[in-house]
Amino acid sequence: MDASKKAITQRIQNIINDETLNNLIPEIIDSFNEFSLSKNEFLVKKGDPCRYFCFVESGILQYAVTVSGQEKTTYLALRNGFASSLKSFLQQTPSPKNIKALSACKLWGLTIGDFKHLIKNNRAFHQFYYNFIENQIFLIDDYRIDLLTLTPEERYKKLLINEPKLLQEVPLHYLASFLGISTRHMSRIRKNIN
């Protein structure tokens, strides 16, 4: 097994967390197709249907919406994560957001046909998807609570502890947008903490 497929396999096994389903994972892996995005290329543009559910082998994807003429980062998908405009992908409807490569990305994608086939016919993929969505809901809930209860400084410190690689890999203005603060305020916070 090559290194790329090994990375996807390990990530999916970690999410499934049930060794009795490991024999069903090769079908999942064989359904993914490799492709690349150049820096600033879109996985999906707002208004277009999302064509893939992806594993991010390398690179960073920015989820963004435009509010009052300003781009707001809503999520950052990193190496060993999964990415999709999920509602758009599953319903094949226009995406409400852009998903853009902030750096060159190597991705492994499932088409909607392969995704539906696996959900219906592969218990391991069904368990993977259930666990994946459950974890995403936990993350979204934590993020929303943090936006309401933590100061910008506390959100930055939490990011330093939980996601230090974001600070090394993602440009400042994207991180500031993700944390819900201005770039100027983010610079002050970094200066005061460092």
From TrEMBL:
Where does the record place the Cyclic nucleotide-binding domain? 27-136
Segments forming a coiled coil: none
Q: What's the domain of life for this entry? A: Bacteria
Q: Spell out the SUPFAM superfamilies in the cross-references.
A: cAMP-binding domain-like (SSF51206)
Family annotation (SMART domains): cNMP (SM00100)
Supply the name of the protein: CRP-like cAMP-binding protein
Q: Which organism is it from?
A: Tenacibaculum lutimaris
